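Subgroup meeting minutes
Present: P.N., E.W., G.H.
Scribe: E.W.

1. P.N. recapped why we're keeping a running log of single-chain structure predictions: easier to compare across weeks, and new members can see raw inputs and outputs side by side.
2. G.H. added today's entry (218 aa).
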Amino acid sequence: MLSKKNAIISLALNCMIVLSTIGIVISYFLGNDGQYHIPPNFRFFLYTTDSNVLCMLTAAIMAFFEIRLLKTGKEIPRLALILKFVGVTALALTFTVVIFFLGPTMGFMDMVFGGTSVYMHFAGPLLGFVTLCFTENIHIISKKALIPAILPAVVYGITYVTMVVFIGSENGGWIDFYGFNTGGFWYISCVVIILATLGLGALLRLVHNKIAKNNIEK
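Output recorded in log:
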């Protein structure tokens, strides 16, 4: 069972994730167009926004059960942890793409870490990692959880390819704002992204389970 100390720390961090994400999303409609200078509605076409919102929802679910645990002592269900794992894996992909692709191609300070992007690209993924691996060490995450963990990337990838490649901006689709179709190699980008997501999920699972195992055996 999650200790009272870890439950309080995790609850505080999850509330920070929820409030920060909500605040930033609201700011999109109040004049914050960031370094991208794009309309608020278009922000939801970005994987950065989608992954942060997904993690926010899973953090809210976890916070609910942490409050219940502190009040009643009832254990946090495994499903809540798996959902959090899915959300954090999605954010881990955001962080990785930013560090290894968008940063070098668009500039770290101007396009990646400017304004509220510093939270969406860095602080948010960091908070997700810390909570999942160091404070929510209550259940072992099975290998089967890797399947739902890659689903957000798969769904977004299908949508992105459809809108960018098969429909195209000239027909009402999206421009290739991530550059994943540079040279027409969108299929290579898709394979790399899915494999990267699978690898990140496996790494998160490894770290979480190692710490959780020590906690459970105490």
